[in-house]
Amino acid sequence: MPASVVLGAQWGDEGKGKAIDQLANESNWAVRFQGGNNAGHTIVLGDTTLKLHQIPSGVTSPHCNLVLGDGMVVDPWVLEEELDRWHSLTEERPEGKRLFISERASVILPFHRMYDSADKVVGTTGRGIGPAYRDRIERVGIRFVDIPFVIGDSDKIDETVSRMNMQLDSVGVNQKVERKDFVADLEWIMDRFGEAIRPTGAMIDKALKNGENVLLEGAQGAMLDIDQGTYPFVTSSVTSRANATHGAGIHPGHVNNCFGISKAYTTRVGNGPFPTELPYDTGPGNHMAMVGHEFGTTTGRPRRTGWLDMVSLKDSHRLNGYTGIVLTKLDVLGGLDELKICTGYDLDGQIIDYMPTSSHDLARCRPIYERHSGFPALEEQEWIEMAELSRSDRKGFEVLPESALSYVRRIEELSGIPIVSIGIGPDRRASIASLGGPFDIDPEVTTF
Ligand code: IMP
């Protein structure tokens, strides 16, 4: 800290929520800076599983302020559902008190969801993310700060409703936006969230100047970045470190740590090339899917599974300059006889060590693997005990089974990035931190 960034280093769903939850204990602010409710963080607190789509994962730390930042597109209806669920669990209503929506964030309206339903190519989450960003880029979107002005501008309302209906028509969506619903929706958003809409960039800047710690929470992952990912099979925002500060409304000089979250293997939801993909119904790919419960948090779709891809991890490091990797779900690989790491691609007979820019080329890449011995499957409780032993005896990663440790060390060697924490189960105690590293902290501090 002062500002730390947590990013997905693969295609999203790496388990960022747990890492963020741990770091939030030491943060005064947790800020989402891009994306919207296409994201899904799962946090396990004792017997309760929380699925959050827009509320920053830092919500579990009661002292942590929460920001839905400038770079986001926010669905107010989904936010209301999340806040109601949070309230039913904790009796807390954080909105306007410690949860703030940036004035600059864009509003996702029913129109955006309707328009997204026409997608046939990318396999989007259908949450209206791309259409909301498209409106922003076209400079016809509505930011939270604009809502009262739009409500008071009859011409603007007519123009917007007519544009929306023409666009729905043009992609063959039969639904229509009614003028009265559009206005009622905007009025409801102001009633429900008016108190929470704030100039959050200036608030975070002030906090940093007062020496407070800020956690910038990425959503999706490096390979889903609109500019640097596997275009067009990407999301519509910049998911990288470079946008973490920009999308929060502060400058990049504040950041001193950037953690890349990577599974010990790879998953992807939606369409697009995936060089290390394995058959889903059988063998190690099926093992990963079933043992790792690989279903999308937002859509419930099965996630495609494959071996760890060092080529993509290195590309993602080139982009984001990780100061540490959090390796998640290592326990899931337990029980496989052999593990593989992809160290290069064969593209039409040529060996390459980077991801080709074109998705057509990437789809033809054949992975080149190195092989490693597997390690035994353990029960959830055995992994937790291992993690506890690591903490109590100050052993760090040395508690891991020998071949699991050599797999981890090889990932560090190939990537050139230190691994700072290893996830070995969903429970918040089931993590092993590198000794003296940024995750070498008490796992039990959070009071929610
Ligand atoms: P969109 O972000 O809904 O437009 O979807 C674009 C692509 O990104 C699709 O392939 C989605 O499955 C994928 N995607 C979006 N958000 C996430 C996420 O949080 N985790 C994993 N994949 C995601």
How would you describe this structure to a colleague?
The chain is α/β, with parallel strands linked by helices. The protein folds into two domains: 308 residues, Adenylosuccinate Synthetase, subunit A, domain 3 (Adenylosuccinate Synthetase, Chain A, domain 3), CATH 3.90.170.10; 90 residues, Adenylosuccinate Synthetase, subunit A, domain 2 (Orthogonal Bundle), CATH 1.10.300.10. It is built from 14 helices and 20 strands. The strands form five sheets. The chain has a ten-stranded mixed β-sheet, with helices on both faces. Strand 3 and strand 4 form a beta hairpin. Helix 3 packs across helix 4. The relative contact order is 0.15. The mean pLDDT is 95. The structure holds inosinic acid (IMP). Inosinic acid binds next to helix 4.
